[in-house]
């Protein structure tokens, strides 16, 4: 039996051979299958990643938008990371390559076991849009994707640091020699309603438990914790 047949047999409990054999980048592990996926922005082109479909129904995408990116994202987060102009429809916006053609996830068998909630829940959830910190050495602005409390803390500490430099970005992905994002791209900050949003009630937060910290001595955190009913 050849290696390809073994792979299909290993994941037979999840998908039929005919459902996955023509998918570009197909691979499998002990409890997941993996395939190359992507999301296309009309303005910025394709963002490519590795989609893992776990037997539990969980989905995650390891982004490969550039060699320095090490983000592992949920489908909704990958859609945002790809700067898609119409976010919120990740089942149609994220695609895999089948027989040389880009096919939306919704038209494949890959979502059969998905436990990811529908887009309606995403629209109702307030999110923190991406933030930027200016390097005190070169003056370039660097993006922080504040998807979690930990990532927001990394941004917060950098933002209040009067001596912050590119080399101290938490992902170790920048030096002062790297180009700054184009101004047009910086406008896309990850609002789930409109990726080019300049600030709305869904993506602008004036303080919450995720972005204000009891062990921080900055005046913003002190004032929030003093007045907040938490």
UniProtKB/TrEMBL annotation:
Gene3D superfamilies: 3.30.40.100
Boundaries of every SAND domain copy: 18-117
GO molecular function: DNA binding
Matching InterPro entries: Developmental_reg_ULTRAPETALA (IPR020533), SAND_dom (IPR000770), ULT1/2_SAND (IPR057011), ULT1/2_Znf (IPR057012)
Classification via Pfam families: SAND_ULT1, zf_ULT1
PROSITE patterns xrefs: SAND (PS50864)
One cellular component (GO) term of this entry: cytosol
Name of the protein in its database record: Protein ULTRAPETALA 1
Organism: Rhynchospora pubera
